[in-house]
Design brief:
PH-domain like; 3 domains; seven-stranded antiparallel β-sheet; five-stranded mixed β-sheet; 22 helices; 14 strands; globular; hydrolase; phosphatidylinositol-3-phosphate phosphatase activity; lipid metabolism; MTMR8 protein; MTMR8_PTP
């Protein structure tokens, strides 16, 4: 890879906020896609790469004795503080980064120029890796009550839903279309997750256009069809994830929430998760706390509390827990919505599915979950992540909160997830990187129009290639924990330093437990491979064992059963890959002896463990 430099500035200082060491001095380069800083003062060449799409803000600070400071904040919470010697250079870097980090057209995004030298066939295979139909089949759909319909193939039901949706078999096309007209943006009730054991369904939609008194017979029939698809329960929940005050304000605008008098056998409940504007403000306050130079314990804890961030994380988690309990314990179907059904609804439905089903805690399952609940169902990644130069009030850390909720669960259930923290961070990075096509646009229709599947690559195969470094060495397997029941008391929630201070190396432990465990697992695999290779050689050995204390001249197949049964205590078995050790006893290599000692030591260990 040889980037074309748009700009090159020498003698640029890079300050470290947390390490009390002299600032690095090096060269800053700008390419079409990255800012690259090469530290010239380091003994070993050290590079810092910042993707332009990751940049959320660039700020020129007041002149100092060292030069002209430039502060860069990134969407993955990297903060880079440069000091540039010349004002003209600083201005050029500043204006270039403003332009490069805020593309106007989707075609300017990195995914459309990213070329990993992959064939067209492999790219197409990558996009087909996640098949949502297979996930619905895994749930037992289609069945007597639910079916997959292509009723939205022309996007006439809903422009932000995928062409195929899962709806009750009893819901006629007239019912579906009528419900569509009564739901905000046509986002009718559709299935997210079906519990095969008890037929309880988790469904999602947008708010009804009810105002203070409006009703819709088809929408009422749609909810009745959902309730009757679960014969074991006499009622269903309808959950509004908004605070009640917000929902009532929407009523005044002709929207709002369901009137229990109009819907048969429903139990209505408000959850109270705040809107995107509150969440955006909360994250900003949290990041201000993270960037404190030398905070006291009181300053840090007060700032964390005042940000309200963990309180919001708890609210999302509480909602997910409520939905999971309703489905699993009360055996009741649940319909969830917020305003438009693509932010809070996506958070709580995906979280509840994760709690209910261990499949979604695997690599492949988690990818399916994100594709199903976030990408296919129209979460507005482009707007919420600020991919293009647009309305800053549309930006909000909705997906970040979901990722953090998963991390919080991983702290309580460290053996229940196949992947580790780095996997979550990789996904979070690429939601903002625009390097892959998965998270571009706002819905399936828009991705088709942009020809995402023809012109860009899918993230998932690239992550699966790195499973070894992204796996959880403590994972107990698919069936170890069927469902998760997390503690949601306030003291159960932790500040996620690995996310919000991830790039501040001075704040991290000197020793990483995950690295040690992954290293041990890698060593274990290597030793198992060695042992397997040696076991395969044993049946071919038919000569005398070359160790003192061996009385038998034949090992033969018996050697495969137990390497010590023909030897005295302490003798190491001889191994051969040829016809007879007698013909090559003087040709043994040192590596063969090392293998013998390894096997001998392994046998001793095994013996000690079984005594």
């Amino acid at each position: 890879f040889h980037p074309v430099f748009l700009l090159q500035v020498e003698n640029v200082k890079l300050l470290d906020r947390y390490a009390n060491r002299k600032a690095a001095t090096g060269t800053l380069y700008l390419t079409a896609t990255h800012l690259i800083y090469v530290d010239a003062s380091a003994e070993v060449r050290k590079e810092t790469w910042i993707l332009h799409h990751h940049i959320s803000s660039v700020e020129k600070l007041p002149l100092t004795t060292a030069g002209y400071p430039l502060l860069i904040h990134c969407k993955n919470f990297h903060v880079a503080h440069f000091v540039i010697g010349q004002e003209r250079d600083c201005h050029d870097v500043f204006t270039s980064l403003l332009k490069l980090s805020q593309p106007v057209k989707p075609e300017e995004l990195y995914a459309f120029s990213y070329n990993p030298k992959m064939s067209k066939e492999n790219r197409e295979i990558g996009w087909k890796l996640i098949d949502l139909k297979l996930d619905y089949q895994r749930m037992g759909i289609p069945n007597d009550y639910w079916e997959i319909r292509d009723i939205n193939k022309d996007y006439e039901v809903c422009s932000t839903y995928p062409p195929e949706i899962v709806v009750p078999r009893a819901a006629t096309k007239a019912v579906v279309m009528g419900s569509s007209r009564f739901r905000s943006r046509g986002r009718i009730p559709v299935l997210s997750y079906l519990c095969k054991e008890n037929n309880a369904a988790l469904c999602r939609c947008s708010q009804p256009l009810a105002g203070f008194s409006a009703r819709c017979l088809e929408d009422e029939q749609m909810l009745q069809a959902i309730r009757e698809a679960n014969p074991g329960s006499p009622f269903m929940y309808v959950v509004d994830t908004r605070p009640k005050l917000n929902a009532m304000a929407n009523r005044a605008a002709g929207k709002g929430y369901e009137n229990e008098d109009n819907y048969e056998n429903i139990r209505f409940k408000f959850i109270g998760i705040e809107n995107i504007h509150v969440m955006r403000s909360s994250l900003q306050k949290l990041l201000e706390v993270c960037e404190m130079k030398s905070p006291s314990m009181s300053d840090f804890l007060t700032g964390l509390e005042n940000s309200g961030w963990l309180r919001h994380i708890k609210a999302v988690m509480d909602a997910g827990v409520f939905l999971a309990k309703a489905v699993r314990e009360e055996r009741a179907s649940v319909l969830v919505h917020c305003s438009d059904g693509w932010d809070r609804t996506a958070q709580v439905c995906s979280l509840a599915s994760l709690l209910l089903d261990p499949f979604y805690r695997t690599f492949k399952g988690f990818m399916v979950l994100i594709e199903k609940e976030w990408i296919a169902m129209g979460h507005k990644f482009s707007h919420r992540c600020g991919h293009l130069d647009g309305d800053p009030k549309e930006v909000s850390p909705v997906f970040t909160q979901f990722v953090e909720c998963v991390w919080q669960l991983m702290q309580q259930f460290p053996c229940s997830f196949e992947f580790n923290e780095r996997f979550l961070l990789e996904i979070h990075d690429h939601v903002y990187s625009c390097q892959f096509g998965n998270f571009l646009g706002t819905c399936h229709k828009e991705r088709e129009e942009l020809r995402i599947f023809e012109k860009t690559h899918s993230l998932w195969p690239f992550l699966l290639q790195r499973k070894q470094e992204l796996r959880n060495p403590l994972y107990r397997g698919f069936t170890a924990y069927k469902e998760l029941q997390p503690n949601t008391l306030p003291f159960s929630f932790q500040f996620w330093c690995g996310m919000y201070n991830r790039f501040d190396k001075g704040m991290h432990p000197k020793q990483c437990v995950l690295d040690k465990l992954l290293s041990c697992m890698s060593q274990k695999v290597t030793l198992e491979d060695n042992a397997s290779e040696l076991e395969n050689k044993l049946p071919f050995f038919d000569g005398p064992l070359p160790s003192e204390g061996c009385s038998s001249s034949k090992a033969g197949p018996a050697a495969a059963k137990g390497p010590r049964q023909d030897c005295g205590e302490g003798a190491a078995p001889g191994l051969s890959n040829g016809p007879s050790l007698g013909h090559q006893k003087h040709k043994e290599s040192p590596s063969q002896h090392r293998d013998l000692h390894k096997l001998s030591a392994s046998a001793e260990d095994g013996k000690a463990q079984h005594q």
